[in-house]
Design a protein that fits this description.
alpha/beta, 18 helices, 5-stranded mixed beta sheet, 47% helix
């Protein structure tokens, strides 16, 4: 374990001197209090030490005579910190070659101030709310433009994250969508923002990316699949999708061996949209007999029974299950403990709930980048999804190792 650096202690004499005029909390913590004055003096002292190091001699040291460079006063500058705004003097040299490090040229914010703005933005606060929060807590007035510039810097992180390398094989990848209102050429559209949540071979979860649909159907999904391929992904054992048109074909065009499984939860929800309120509970119970059957043959029998009972009232339900049947039945090859991992979407539903909680107060986004930026921050703020393991994964892993013997990555 690395040895911790020992911090210098401040003597009681120094503290007594600082607090000699202290009478009330405002004297210490107020806008003109000791803390703020001490920060100002310490910053200026540190900058002075940097200039001394740059010049190679102390102030008033005769060694500086004839050195070719010297001190040249100080320029006034206001910097923003978590304690509010502080005006400091930044020392200059005559040659203009001094580059301060503590407060660099052009820098106007210190002490992780940008991190505080990003943290508030990641929790769904609007620019106006962030302005008010900073003013109330720190007495700092910041412009909307500054907040936007700070949060826009996140887009570089998003770009790096979206282009990072991926594992060669993921046993399960769940694709799901959120509906978000985004302004596009002056019109507010209800756009689909897609997430890909993978279960790695070690049972940990990982969000592979975020995409906003720009084109129709299969073309869009083919683009997404090729992007994943180009980032190093060679194989997906099981892809769980929500019945989107052209999606299975797009997956298999790039990953021909992938087993495509329709998300049962989505299919049930879609089915219940056709029901009157009084019938929903019974229809859901009857559909459960289909997807909880012991094998595909029994499931088909249960579906036939369901259609006999409900087709007269709700013919669209049976038809939707028949249309998706080839993608409904793959999970019947697994025992029930494994089916739960494959056909339910608890993991991505939980993630989506965290994201919706953060974006719900936004109403609409001005553009795609604004939506991507906040959703990315929401994912990071959701508790490091990749560190969460999947319950019962060892059971599933043993099954996968047998069923996909030649394709499963080796596990330690």
């Amino acid at each position: 374990m690395p040895e911790m650096t020992k911090r210098p202690e401040i003597s009681d004499e120094v503290l007594d001197e600082l607090l000699k005029d202290y009478e009330k909390p405002e004297d210490l913590l107020g806008p003109d209090g000791i803390f703020k004055a001490l920060k100002k003096r310490m910053i200026e002292k540190a900058l002075g030490a940097e200039l001394t190091c740059h010049l190679g001699y102390d102030k008033s040291d005769p060694a500086g005579h004839g050195s070719g460079n010297s001190r040249n006063g100080a320029s006034r500058k206001t910097v923003t910190s978590e304690d509010g705004s502080v005006e400091i003097g930044v020392p200059r040299d005559r040659n203009g070659s001094f580059e301060p490090q503590l407060v660099q040229k052009g820098q106007t914010r210190i002490d992780g101030f940008d991190d505080k703005i990003i943290s508030m933005y990641a929790r769904g606060m609007s620019v106006r709310e962030i302005q008010g929060h900073l003013k109330e807590l720190y007495g700092v007035s910041v412009s909307p433009d500054l907040i936007s510039r700070v949060t826009d810097a996140v887009l570089e992180d998003v770009k790096a994250w979206q282009n990072r390398g991926l594992d060669a094989v993921y046993p399960v990848v769940i694709f799901d969508a959120l509906r978000v209102k985004i302004r596009d050429h002056g019109i507010v559209k209800n756009k689909a923002v897609y997430l890909a949540l993978a279960i790695r071979a070690d049972g940990k979860r990982e969000v592979l990316g975020i995409w906003i649909e720009q084109t129709e159907g299969a073309k869009f999904w083919l683009k997404v699949m090729n992007e994943l391929k180009n980032r190093g992904l060679d194989d997906i054992l099981i892809a769980v999708v929500d019945g989107l048109k052209g999606f299975p074909d797009a997956i298999n065009a790039v990953f021909p061996q992938t087993m495509v499984q329709t998300c049962i939860v989505h299919l049930v929800r879609y089915s219940l949209n056709f029901c009157s309120y009084k019938d929903k509970k019974q229809v859901a119970a009857d559909l459960k007999t289909v997807y909880s059957a012991k094998d595909a043959e029994e499931a088909q029998e249960r579906l036939g029974e369901f259609e006999q009972k409900w087709d007269e009232q709700y013919p669209s339900i049976g038809q939707s299950w028949r249309r998706n049947w080839e993608q409904v039945i793959p999970f019947f090859a697994f025992p029930k403990d494994v089916r739960r991992i494959i056909y339910t979407t608890n993991a991505i539903e939980s993630l989506n709930a965290s994201i919706r909680k953060i974006i719900k107060s936004r109403g609409q986004f001005p553009n795609d980048d604004a939506a991507i930026k906040l959703i990315y921050l929401a994912i990071q703020n959701a508790g490091q999804v990749s560190n969460a393991g999947v319950w019962g994964w060892k059971t599933a892993l043993n099954q996968f190792a047998i069923m996909f013997e030649d394709r499963m990555p080796n596990q330690i």
